[in-house]
Prior knowledge:
2 copies of one chain form a homodimer.
Chain A: H1 3-14, H2 18-30, H3 32-42, E1 50-56, H4 62-75, E2 80-86, E3 112-118, H5 128-140, E4 144-150, H6 154-162, E5 165-170, H7 176-185, E6 191-194, H8 202-215, E7 225-227, H9 236-251, H10 255-286, H11 289-298, H12 304-317
Parallel strand pairs in A: 1-4, 1-5, 2-3, 2-4, 5-6, 6-7
Helix pairs in contact in A: 1-2, 1-3, 2-3, 2-5, 4-9
Amino acid sequence: MDEDDVSVLVASLLRGDRRALARLITLVENRPRLRDRIMSLIYPYTGNAYVIGITGSPGSGKSTLVDKLTGELRTRGKTVGIIAIDPTSPFTGGAILGDRIRMLSKSTDEGVFIRSMSTRGSLGGLSRAAYDAIALLDAFGKDFVIVETVGTGQAEVDIVDAAYTSIVVVTPDMGDEIQAIKAGILEIADIFVVNKADLENVDATVMALQMMLDLSDKGDWRPPIIKTVATKGVGVKELLDAIERHKAYICETDRIEKMHYKRSKVRILEIVRSKLMDKLIRELENSGELDRIVKCVVEKKMDPYSAADEILRKLDKK
Amino acid sequence: MDEDDVSVLVASLLRGDRRALARLITLVENRPRLRDRIMSLIYPYTGNAYVIGITGSPGSGKSTLVDKLTGELRTRGKTVGIIAIDPTSPFTGGAILGDRIRMLSKSTDEGVFIRSMSTRGSLGGLSRAAYDAIALLDAFGKDFVIVETVGTGQAEVDIVDAAYTSIVVVTPDMGDEIQAIKAGILEIADIFVVNKADLENVDATVMALQMMLDLSDKGDWRPPIIKTVATKGVGVKELLDAIERHKAYICETDRIEKMHYKRSKVRILEIVRSKLMDKLIRELENSGELDRIVKCVVEKKMDPYSAADEILRKLDKK
């Protein structure tokens, strides 16, 4: 696989070849050098997909909801790409849930493309490869890209950097601790979904969210709260209507330009950081300098901050 | 507050002044310049505390378990510092759970010091300030420092970098999705706790963990599985015994030296990265260079990787 093969693959992707798309996602995940080339080739064709983020605690029914939402988007004639972000094993580097077989009823539909990705290599949640996969699905021509993150950690929070509309899924059976965490994801949510709305306590959950929204200042968009029973498809149309309203809201002002600017900046700096540190660490390790300084810290001749300053001083001199 | 005041505070900390400790933790959290000075002053006094990490999903009863474990450590004559890591709000930067009043029955005990911290400023979970707080509690003279992380995200995984013994808490009432995530935290755990062991399915949970352990290769330490009912204090003695066994295991070999080396290296590089990027971003913003490049990316004249490369080329020339 060299740069010429990559150009051929990208041409196939732009013609709508699903296998080329799958292949290219794997390449941006695993081959940094080819990734740079791929991204520069496809970048001019991006910017048309609308990115939706869906997040929530494990067991909240996100995957089922994504499935039903995808069905509704298909009914409305839209094509959909789905990226499911799985927690990464810190040791193997792979996605923990592996290539889980997603129960998506639409998985044989040509208008839908699904991919699981790990959080590997991330400096704070969504991995760089996830952003690249969004760009590939975008260039491929998907109208909507849905990014689904699991867990209550950083990936959940970072979805705001990738998605235009962020949806937070809660359920009526969540305990107190989760309620407390919700106060944080409150600020992320453009739309709340109370899934499993056929359980008890659904009204209490909606009221608790309403109260939190009353106390917070979300500017001129107040996140709607949509009740769903994803397993039965209840409320899914209403959810998509809410997404369309939010889309119209952010597109009718200069809000979407500001989003693009901020996101581009964050992405560029993240790439700079990663490349710069890779290079620096390689140099420091090759010269034996890093080993010497780490040993000083281990022996308490130096604290970590002074050690970092010494490295930075050396860099400045060069 | 200047560097002289800091020296006075550090002297008070070393004499065992709790208010100085609290003050210094606040300073390392909020004042980067003073933090460097504080860390260089206290670093020679660190290295005596044994750091335990406790992690698990929301609602697993971690806080209660930490409470009871602390009680057991106190009974055995040990002093304890507790750092509870809360998820950070990406917008306010503060800890979401705020300065939550922890229900710790030992909170009036002079031998116990408790602090909640946010994940703010973290590049992947535990914040730098959390490491600094561990060092402060260590220099203060605590025999044990317990770091409690909430959530299923990165902070949970990064606890391995801070703790000598990492404990993962699960409960019998966890759903399938959490079971899957557990496969990842399997690799983190030195000890498993099945809390709420008075619920149904406890034996099934223990068996599932045993099976996962049978399939994995943890070297010559097989993580024990301890059943607890934290609310009633059941199993807490057994848990502390297991911790002591693991402590003996890692201390009797050169394992602990290797841990110190690896952790020092990770910390130094994290500080280098953060300081380097702060400086770089400041320079790029002041010169207007960053704004120019971001605009190129927004307008699709350039992709983010090429933009990053342009910045790196400029750096190399300087």
